[in-house]
Amino acid sequence: MKPALLPILVVVLGQNAICGPKHEPQPENATVGVLRAFEDHDVVMVGEIHSNKEEYNWYVSLIRTPEFADRVDDIVLEMGNSLYQQFVDSYVAGENVRFEQVQKAWRNTVGLIGPQSPLVESLYGAVRETNMRRRGKHQMRIVCGDPAIDWDIVNDINTVNLYSSRREEWYAHVVQEQVLAKHHRALLIMGGMHFLRNSGKPSPNPSIEAKLRKRRARTYVIVAGTNTPNDCCETDHRFDSWLAPSVVSAHGWVGELAARSLLEGGYPNSKPKLKDGADAFLYLGPRDSLTFVSMTRTQLQGTTYGKEIERRLKIEMILQPDEAPLFPETEEQPQFPRP
C-alpha cells in the first residue's frame, strides 16, 4: 500500500475550488471533488441516503474511476456484517467464492432488519470487477462496518439490541483497526445521521468522527441530500441550475440550510445547519427526481430470504406473530413520497 499523506477524511473537497466567491456556492462534479479531497486527506466520510439509486449509481462510477482505485485502499460500509469479512475479502479480490456466503455480508446486518436493496450488491460487485480489471495494480478492499451478529442463532430481541446498541462504536473501532492503524486511505459510507455533527441525538459515547479525530485523524464530512431547505415538499430553486451529482463546501447560503432537511427530503425546524453538521454537501438532484430501490414481493415472498426477513421483523416486534410482511410490488419508488 502507498503510504498515507495525512490522517483521515470524511468527505472532502478542495475548498478553494468549490467555495468560489464568499457567499455564492460553486458546486463541482462529485467525482472530481472527492478525488481532490484524497489529495489532502486519508479518510472521506459520506453520510448517505439509504437505497438511493442516484447515489449508488455515482458510487459505482466513482469506484470504476482509475484515479480513485489508484488512491483508495478501503471502502468501509455500514451495510456489511463483519462476521463475513473473510468471504468479502475473497470476493472483491476476484477469487472463486460461493456467492451465497458473500451475500450474507449485506443481507445479514443488524442495522437493517428488512430486505436489503439490490443497490448494495451492485457496489460490492463494482469493487470486485474493478479489482479484476486491475490485476497486478493497487487493489481496493471492502471493510464491513456493522457488528458481527449471527442471525442463524439469534432468536430474541435482547440479543439484537445488544448488537444494535453498539453499531457506531463498532464502526469506529473497525475504521481505527483496519484503516488508521494501517495508514490507509478510505471512503466511509454510512447513513447520514451517523456522520452528521451536532445532530442533537443523545449518546453516552463520542461520535464516530470524534473517535477518529482522537486518533489524530483529519476528517471531512459530506452529507448527501436534495433541494429541500425545510418542510416536507418545499424546494429551493437556487439549486435549479446545479448538475447532479455535485459537491459543494458548506459555505454561503447552502451552509445556512438545515442539514437533516436536505438529507431526508424535508424535515421541519431541524438542526444543525449544514455548516455546523458537515464540511460539504453532495447534491443528488431535485427531491421528486430521486429513486428508492428495493427488492419486490415477487423476489421475496415464499423464498428462504423472505421468510428470514419475516422472522427478524417478528423478533423486533415490528410484525405481530400473525402478521405477514408487506413487500413492495415494484423495485423502484419515489425516494420521498409526497403525502
Write the topology of this structure.
Layout: H1 15-19, E1 28-29, H2 30-40, E2 43-48, H3 53-64, H4 66-71, E3 74-81, H5 85-92, H6 99-107, H7 118-133, E4 141-146, H8 157-164, H9 167-178, E5 186-191, H10 192-195, H11 208-214, E6 221-225, E7 246-249, H12 252-255, H13 259-264, H14 274-277, E8 280-283, E9 291-293, H15 297-300, H16 304-315, E10 332-334
Parallel strand pairs: 2-5, 2-6, 3-4, 3-5, 6-8
Antiparallel strand pairs: 1-7, 7-8, 9-10
Helix pairs in contact: 3-7, 5-6, 9-11
Number of helices: 16
Strand residues, percent: 5-15%
**Order of strands, widest sheet:** 1-7-8-6-2-5-3-4
- SSE-based structural type: alpha/beta
Helices and strands, in order, run as HEHEHHEHHHEHHEHHEEHHHEEHHE
- What percent of residues adopt helix (DSSP H or I)? 25-40%
Number of distinct beta strands:
10
Report the span from N to C terminus. Answer: 50 Å
Name the quaternary structure.
Answer: single chain
CATH architecture: 3-Layer(aba) Sandwich
Residue windows where pLDDT falls under 50 for at least 5 positions: 1-21
CATH topology annotation: Rossmann fold
What general form does the structure show? globular
